[in-house]
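(Fold this chain)
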Amino acid sequence: MIPPVVMRVLVTLAMLTGMTLEPVTPEPMPEAMTAQAVLEPAEDMVEQLAIVIYQEAGGDACSDLCRMYVGDVVLNRMASDRFPDTLEEVLTQKYQYGTLWKTGIVWPSRASNPGEASAVERAYETARKLLSGEHSEIYGEGYVWQAEFQQGSEGFWCDGMYFGK
């Protein structure tokens, strides 16, 4: 069963991007089970989330788990009544996520350096996982802050980033 907060995000994403929920039947499937809906993320959403994961988590020194935390904070904001409902609005909210509110959701110039190719690919992989329903333990738990300093409550550090409620 899909948790309600996950379903809210999935339905919101589907409505805002024109994506469809398609039933998937795993093989083999007992007769007593029913097919579950799976959301295939739109590639532009994958790229937008990858951009912010790369921008916030940086190069290859950041662990995959911390990259998941960055993405889950963004998705938690979309599900929160305190923040905008769409990915673009969350990422371009004034004074949030670097200069994306001024520049739009674009790759930082350093992302085109050959030495950053692995970090860029890891950001894409993380975004695809998150938008396909794979999450860290902070997803749906109210963690909406991520910075290089403490903010919010009940926080913790991961690879030089602070995550809080």
About this structure: Confidence is low (pLDDT under 50) at residues 29-38. The domain at 42-164 is CATH 1.10.10.2520 (Arc Repressor Mutant, subunit A). Strands lie at 21-24, 36-39, 145-147, 156-158, 161-164.
